[in-house]
Design a protein that fits this description.
By secondary structure, the chain is α/β, with parallel strands linked by helices. It has 15 helices and seven strands. The strands form two sheets. Strands 2-3-4-1-5 form a five-stranded parallel sheet, with helices on both faces. Strands 6-7 form a two-stranded parallel ribbon. α3 links the parallel β3 and β4. The protein is globular, with a radius of gyration of 21 Å. The chain starts with a strand and ends in a 12-residue tail after the last helix.
Length: 336
């Protein structure tokens, strides 16, 4: 049983993905060819995922299923399927890896995973970031000024995967032994930044800007996302839902004033830029409004899944209007 299920949680995507790859590598070393599957719980019914594990494979020696969005696994029937599979499957050639951006999952799910097969991946502390970035550039044959490193850290999500992906652009633009400066960062990253649910949330949570400006900028980013290769509305909504769940948590953590750094870290708010972001967001949406927005996101997701693809862009813009302008109040839609 210990070798069949893994649980990797937390916001440090880079190290978390490396752990997933290590499990796959171990499975391949032991069994040779394996079938690999990746599912998002926001998109695929869990019963369908479990069918693959229960059926096994006819054409390879093993199967590995990675399931993202594990924080959504709460239903009694879903948890029972996992428990029954673990109890009835002595063959360790089938592996289920549960992954979540959140720090924790449902306690009943957590108990199904052996202690040695689960790990939380925390973001780097502030005093670790510049040294990590400097070492990453050196490893690839480059140098970087401290001011440039700090600017990169202000612009990119605090996880090693995002940092590696974005900083790899410098290795294409500049020759080996180049020293990256602030000007280089502004040229390479500022003008070529890829938009995502997280950059959208960051923009609409700028409490210092007028609401109409935040909405207009949000619409602009939404349109860029829709024109990009990563244009899945389901994943966009899932990303925003993750941000607003975190905002609900921020309100709970800060209910009696600003907590100490350890409490913030344990709850996934270790970096100063992230703390500033959620401080700003909390000025715009209180806990009840943030909870109402989660319901709006869930409703938009259901509408799009149930045949709203033709009106997808309109539904997404309506959703953004309800989040930014209405602050969690559902807007009426005319019917024709």
């Amino acid at each position: 049983m210990a070798g069949q299920i893994y649980l990797y949680t937390g916001p440090e995507f880079g190290e978390r993905n490396e752990a997933v790859d290590a499990v796959k590598a171990g499975l391949k070393k032991k069994f040779g060819d394996i079938d690999e599957h990746l599912f998002y719980l926001q998109e695929t019914p869990f019963g369908q995922i479990m069918t693959i594990l229960q059926s096994g494979t006819l054409f390879s020696n093993g199967v590995c299923v990675v399931c993202k969005g594990a924080e959504l696994l709460k239903k009694k029937d879903d948890l029972a399927m996992i428990s029954d599979w673990l109890d009835g499957n002595p063959d360790d050639s089938s592996v289920l890896i549960l992954v979540s951006d959140e720090v924790s999952v449902d306690s009943k799910l957590d108990k199904l995973v052996p202690a040695q097969n689960k790990k939380k991946f925390w973001e780097m502390f502030d005093n670790q970031k510049v040294p990590w970035l400097t070492k990453f550039f050196q490893k690839n044959g480059y140098r970087i000024n401290q001011d440039a490193a700090e600017l990169i850290l202000d612009m990119i999500e605090n996880n090693t995967q995002a940092l590696k992906n974005e900083c790899s652009r410098f290795f294409i633009v500049f020759p080996k032994d180049h020293t990256v400066t602030v000007d280089d960062v502004e040229k390479v990253l500022t003008h070529n930044r890829e938009e995502s649910a997280f950059t959208l949330f960051n923009q609409i949570s700028q409490s210092g800007e007028p609401v109409q400006k935040r909405f207009e900028n949000g619409i602009s980013i939404l349109q860029k996302i829709r024109l990009s290769k990563e244009n899945s509305s389901v994943m966009l909504i899932a990303g925003l839902a993750s941000c607003f769940r975190k905002l609900v948590l921020w309100h709970k953590v800060c209910d009696n004033g600003m907590p100490d750094s350890f409490t913030l870290k344990v709850n996934g708010f270790s970096s100063v830029p992230m703390q500033n972001q959620y401080k700003s967001a909390a000025k715009i949406w209180n806990d009840k409004q943030a909870t109402a927005i989660l319901a709006i996101l869930a409703s938009a997701d259901m509408e799009i899944r149930s045949g709203g693809a033709l009106m997808e862009d309109i539904l997404l813009e309506k959703m953004l209007y309800e989040i930014v302008i209405k602050r969690g109040v559902t807007a009426a839609v005319a019917e024709y």
